[in-house]
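Hello forum,

I keep getting stuck at the same step: I have a sequence, I want structure tokens, and every attempt I make locally crashes halfway through. Rather than fight my setup again tonight, could one of you with a working pipeline run this one for me? It's a single chain of 83 residues.
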Amino acid sequence: MRLSQRSGTILMAALMASILSLIMSFTMDSINVGFVSYFFMVWMRDFLIAFLVSFPSTLLFQPVLMKLIDKWVDEKEKLKQGT
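Reply #2:
Ran it on my machine without issues. Output:
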């Protein structure tokens, strides 16, 4: 089963937000709290908060940033070709 373009975009945003939120919350919690007996609970709470911020942010900014990157790449290619 293949996903639609819209579903693929949402899935990509969810995966990126999940991975980055897991890594960042783990890093910050290990620095700020340390590996205490309740570390996992603190980490999961902070992961959920981070995900709830990063997922909509990714959905909002990804299209805008892709357009800017595409514009920049196209301009560089034009200069490279000498046109």
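The radius of gyration is 18 Å. If your local run keeps crashing, start a new thread with the error log.
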